[in-house]
Amino acid sequence: MIFDSKKKTAKPVLSGAVKASASRTARFDTDNMPLACRPAQLEEGLYDMLRAQVPIIDAAITKVVRLTGGFKLRCADERAEKQMAEFFAELPVPASGRSLERFCEMYLDSLLTYGRAMGEILVSGITHEISGLYCADCTLFRVRAAKDMSRAEFYSAYTGEKLRCMHPERVLYTVQNPSAQHPEGVSLLRGLPALSGVLLRIFETVGQNFERAGNVRYAVTYKPSGEGEAAYAKERAMDIAREWADGMAASKAGQVKDFIAVGDVEIKVIGADGAELNTEIPVRQLLEQLIAKLSIPPFLLGLNWSTTERMSSQQADILTSEIDYYRRLLEQAILKIARFYADMNGISSDIWVEWENVNLQDEESLARARLYNAQAQQIELENQSKMNMNSEKV
């Protein structure tokens, strides 16, 4: 859709996408990947696995997308503003729903996960009007600057061949935290695979310990008391083992059998003497690193860590600043879509985006700020009137 599908180079892209999705479900089949694109593909595959295997990471990204909030397109022409609101509320997003906000949610999700997002404004070949918005899989493409540095060029992530863009004015492309070394942007999850691997290993160990606790193994030891019993130790040990196995098999079937033995017989649970490791401290340290990277207050993720009310408000302020940053990134794509629609419909008025407040606490803060400003203005007016009265008396 974004690029010319008639070219022969498009077929390897589709087959490569199938290989990539298959490798992500396993342990990365790197032998079937081109050498030049292994690092990026492995990194993107890790991000998908992180969200699938570590619920707190997926919950953090989902909450950021939702907290970014809704928006309204404003226009100097009220009639044009109403027209745009009705149009973008029913604009199809293929296989995902309708409305411009739905597209922005998918676009921001890709931006946070991979550090970049791609989309396309779909135009009908019959009506020559906007027919939908398409959010592309950014892992299928690589973006490089042209030789003259005036535009971006798109390449296949699997074949490395340059792709011919049919309508570059319709392409939406946004990157997060770009740098000279990483012009394609940096994912929010960068640096988390190592920490998440340790965290998953701890959880796996805890699960194995509880599995062993539910499937108890016993050590039955028979100690002969004299030389006479020692001569028949083997036979008695085999009898004890047989009766013990019969009793354990009966317990699995719901029957209770007593085990009776003569002589010095000791029964112990294997591993009962070993102390279980305390995982609370290392797990919390790892989660603190993850949350510091994701910039989400712990209480929003259901973590009951002791924090004061002042600290919680400061964390909320930090989250608000992060959301403002994501809104600025999204606003570029939103305005490009809105202006594209305005140009096609002859709307020349100024267009801007008006964002909703993050939550009710912001509404309360704004109301309190307006109250304080009004009180300060009233005090200034009273002081000014008193000064005028004093000057008249003099």
Your description of this structure?
By secondary structure, this protein is α+β, with helices and mostly antiparallel strands. Among the domains are: 10-189, no CATH class; 218-269; 359-394. The protein is built from 11 helices and 12 strands. The strands form 5 sheets. It has a 3-stranded antiparallel beta sheet. Strand 4 and strand 5 form a beta hairpin. Helix 2 (38-53) crosses helix 3 (55-67) and helix 2 (38-53) packs across helix 6. It is elongated, with a radius of gyration of 33 Å.
- Widest beta sheet: strand line-up: 5-4-9
Helix content: 40-55%
Cα-to-Cα separation, first versus last residue? 82 Å
Rg computed from alpha carbons, rounded to a whole number of angstroms: 33 Å
How many H/I helical runs?
11
Q: Average pLDDT, to the nearest integer? A: 78
- How does the helix and strand content classify structurally? alpha+beta
Order of helices and strands: HHHEHEEHEEEEEEHEHHEHHEH
Poorly predicted segments: 5-39
Number of strands: 12
Beta fraction of the residues?
Answer: 5-15%
Write down the overall geometry: elongated
* Largest sheet geometry: 3 strands, antiparallel
